[in-house]
Known about the structure:
Elements: E1 6-8, H1 15-18, E2 23-25, E3 44-48, E4 54-60, E5 66-72, H2 81-98, E6 103-108, E7 117-122, E8 125-130, H3 133-137, H4 139-150, E9 154-159, H5 163-166, E10 172-177, E11 183-188, E12 191-196, H6 210-220, E13 224-228, H7 234-241, E14 246-251, H8 254-266, E15 273-277, H9 280-289, E16 294-299, H10 311-327, E17 329-339, H11 346-359, E18 362-370, E19 389-397
Parallel strand pairs: 1-3, 8-9, 13-14, 13-16, 14-15, 16-17
Antiparallel strand pairs: 2-5, 3-4, 4-5, 6-7, 7-8, 9-10, 11-12, 17-19, 18-19
Amino acid sequence: MNKLPPLKLKKGEERRLRGGHLWVYSNEVDVKATPLSGFGAGDQIEIQASNGKVVGNGYINPNTLICARLVSRNPSYRLDQSLITHRLKVALSIRERLFPTPHYRLVHGEADGLPGLVVDRFGEILSVQITTAGMERVRDSMIAALEKVLRPAAILLKNDTSSREVEGLEQIVESVMGEVPERALLEENGVQFEVPLSSGQKTGWYYDHRMNRQRMKSYVKGQRALDLFSYIGGWGVQAATAGASEVLCVDGSEKFLEQVHHNASLNGVTDRVATLHGDVFAALKELRAAREQFDLVIVDPPAFIKRKKDQKNGLQAYRRVNELAMRLLNRDGILITASCSHHLQRSQLKSMLLQSSRHIDRNLTLLEEGHQGPDHPVHPAIPETEYIKCFTGRLLPAS
């Protein structure tokens, strides 16, 4: 086996990697010893400390801030079909232990030892996202490993995420194995859904809130519920199946709201699920003007803070949507609110909820805190792998 080209770090910069992190930033590289211009995007490398001691193997993209990612601390292991196969089996073993049906996120990037790779499983159908040049370089080996471990009927590469632009990669959606259906069937918390794969958001479904949606069911029986940013009904349809008297799903996409009705029909709750098409902020104002009231409101918006520079405007958006939602709650109402923005800290969301409740003269008590599910594991050295925040709160009149 040929020796990999070295990427040498500046003095002391290996400490973070030795402590468990997996990323190398471009300003940590000794560019005099190993100029970044000497590497191509996706090249496999040996990462070395300043004294030449090997930290491990990984891959590089000299054009990005995170210029290298550690794949293995054992220098004899490289990102090839054998290593990918092994790590897929390790990832699969914990999912099969936890979930009764083959519907889950199988690979969650760095936390599963496969940086730059996301794999969502819908039974025999796999929806795959590659987000780095290094993983793109071994695409064929990755697909072969998936075929060997899972023997799927079809594999879709859902490579339309904006993060690929940063890596210099094309955005494209393509079938690379078998015949990918327009919709895939999944079961979550005992409820069935059909998910648009090629035309859906992300990989087609958001498995990350599975546990939070299960906990939601304890609060909805006999209640009138409002599901904001509903997508295809992950929260709303599960609320109806758990006994909500009525659910109104609000989303900006007519196509996705049609899928809400389809999923409601799959589970026999069509008569209790209604939809409202339009901008969520405008819809909230219209509902308030019409004096509509709900017993439970679910707020699960897209990431309002995608980058640090979005912080100010993003915080304002989170506050606006939650305050508007609170104003629609009955005197003793339940708010379930979430954020998928890594840049919004849990403490910030909690503080903002308190401020919003006080601004409308309501008393807020927090009943539960939720996180992403175990098929979205968190790498303890990489805060970016922990992103889901979810709070369940009770809103009462001020007293």
